């Protein structure tokens, strides 16, 4: 084995040991000490192996050991699991603002869509204003009734296109159909 290969192997082993040591010490960090009890996570992957293929059954078994309020780590994300309906109702009523936050994907952050989206905004005056506008202007029964004829005609066009593709034995591109229908509906 030449010198450069040996150095690469040693650097790899050193970095693996450093990552494992760092993550083990991170789990013992005081900022995690006030969390609810839960199974001890593995380095890097957390408790993903314990959750398994049937998460509802695995979390039910874990709740018998750690209680109806427990902490698990899914990779690097710390997750609080509430398995009691009464406790979930109580927590959602007491801490609704803290629990209403959502993870905003990087794809939405690139063009700042998360700053004007009812789905990703935190409960604030802007969120309440957008929500009120959606309820009264977009999803009200009078607005939906006013566009009923347009929606029915677009549905009829879609059905005709699907029937034509079936008659010609052509493949149907659902994505293209939804895209063109969505674009021409707004005209």
UniProtKB/TrEMBL annotation:
Gene3D superfamilies: Cytochrome P450. Signal peptide: none annotated. InterPro entries: Cyt_P450 (IPR001128), Cyt_P450_E_grp-I (IPR002401), Cyt_P450_sf (IPR036396). GO terms for molecular function: heme binding; iron ion binding; monooxygenase activity; oxidoreductase activity, acting on paired donors, with incorporation or reduction of molecular oxygen. Keywords: Membrane, Transmembrane, Transmembrane helix. The keyword Membrane applies. It holds the Pfam family p450. The chain crosses the membrane at residues 6-23. This is Cytochrome P450. It comes from Acacia crassicarpa (northern wattle).
């Amino acid at each position: 084995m030449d010198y450069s290969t040996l150095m690469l192997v040693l650097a790899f082993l050193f970095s693996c040991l450093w990552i494992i040591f760092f993550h083990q010490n991170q789990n013992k960090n005081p900022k995690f000490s006030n969390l609810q009890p839960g199974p001890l996570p593995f380095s890097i992957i957390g408790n993903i192996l314990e959750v398994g293929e049937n998460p509802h059954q695995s979390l039910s078994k874990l709740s018998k050991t750690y209680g109806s309020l427990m902490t698990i780590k899914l990779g690097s994300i710390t997750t609080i699991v509430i398995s009691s309906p009464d406790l979930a109702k109580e927590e959602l009523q007491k801490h609704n603002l803290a629990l209403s936050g959502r993870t905003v994907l990087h794809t939405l952050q690139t063009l700042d869509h998360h700053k004007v989206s009812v789905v990703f905004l935190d409960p604030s005056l802007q969120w309440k204003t957008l929500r009120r506008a959606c309820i009264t202007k977009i999803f009200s029964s009078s607005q939906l009734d006013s566009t009923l004829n347009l929606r029915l005609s677009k549905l009829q066009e879609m059905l005709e296109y699907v029937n034509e593709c079936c008659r010609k034995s052509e493949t149907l591109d659902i994505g293209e159909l939804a895209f063109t229908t969505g674009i021409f509906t707004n005209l």
